[in-house]
Design brief:
single chain; 274 residues; alpha/beta; Helicase, Ruva Protein, domain 3; Rossmann fold; 2 domains; seven-stranded mixed sheet; 11 helices; binds S-adenosylmethionine
């Protein structure tokens, strides 16, 4: 079977999936260890039997809903490549809104101390650290396997101004006052029907009690103790949680509170100044 024929077959298998054409190409490029440009240049190239059976295996897993990022073991975020495993959430494009908002508040060449709480693959921490090399960014997570992935991602992307720490939010924080805290914490309510679509990702990365707000509550409380006066707290949250998160920030005295929408026009990031 040729490259073009294999792609046509895969598109049919994945017809129920949104990005079938792109996924078919990404998985074929991965299966034969080439890139997508190569596939477009050599559509007549005949695949070996081994390559074809590997591709068919990947396509059958993808057709059952397994995310492409887990199948190839990586995902691009903020133009950096992140290794991902079943221990880490797959970085989402909308999380780049949180990175943008954070960077708008970190002056170039500043030596801000920033903490990314619940770093997972390290996406937010490493994106910020790559753009502001003078900052120190602490990447925290309670999951040791996730932290190992984040550390590998720092090495792979040659980013040095990040420190890694295991712990539950800032419960054991001992590195002094912070200029900024960013977090994409678990915010999906336990009874949210969307959870059924997320079976491949770690539930501890996604689900929080109290309508998805318990971790945002806890982090906000801790932030009042560990942020410098004038320091910023920024959260990613669910599309319907903007008002509730602004209220949580307001109650403990944050100022300049605002909610920013994602590229789909949904409330996605709320933030305040201590
Ligand atoms: C929604 S994921 C975000 C991952 C990553 N920051 C991203 O945006 O792709 C939430 C992360 O919080 C971590 N987490 C959950 N509860 C935690 C806690 N109590 N303390 C620290 N990290 C926690 C999970 O292990 C997971 O990596």
């Amino acid at each position: 079977m040729s490259v073009a024929q294999a792609l046509a077959w895969a598109r049919q298998q994945l017809e129920a999936i949104d990005d079938a054409t792109i996924d078919a190409e990404i998985l074929l490029a991965h299966a034969i260890d080439k890139n997508r440009t190569w596939l477009k240049t050599w559509p007549e190239h005949i695949l070996s039997e081994k390559q074809l059976s590997h591709y068919q295996y990947l396509i059958s897993r993808r057709s059952k809903g397994e995310p492409t990022a887990y199948l190839i073991g990586e995902k691009e975020f903020w133009s950096l490549t992140f290794k991902v495993t079943q221990d880490t959430l797959i970085p989402r494009p909308e999380t780049e809104v949180l990175v943008e908002q954070a960077l708008q508040r970190i002056p170039e060449n500043s030596d801000f101390k920033v903490a990314d709480l619940g770093t997972g693959s390290g996406a937010i921490a490493l994106a910020i650290a790559s753009e502001r090399p003078q900052t120190t960014v602490w990447a925290l997570d309670m999951s040791e396997p996730a932290l190992k992935v984040a550390q590998a991602n720092a090495e792979h992307n040659k980013i040095k101004n990040v420190a890694f720490e295991q712990g539950s939010w800032l419960s054991n924080w001992q590195h002094g006052q912070l200029d900024m805290i960013v977090s994409n914490p678990p915010y999906v309510a336990p009874n949210d029907p969307h959870l059924a679509d997320l079976v491949y990702e770690p539930v501890t990365a996604l689900v929080a009690e109290d309508k998805g707000l318990s971790d945002i509550h806890q982090i906000t409380q801790q932030a009042t103790e560990h942020l410098k006066p004038g320091g910023y707290l920024l959260f990613e949250h669910g599309y319907d949680q903007g008002e509730a998160v602004r209220e949580i920030l307001h109650k403990v005295g944050f100022t300049q509170i605002e909610t920013v929408k994602d590229y789909a026009g949904q409330d996605r990031v709320s933030l305040g100044k201590r």
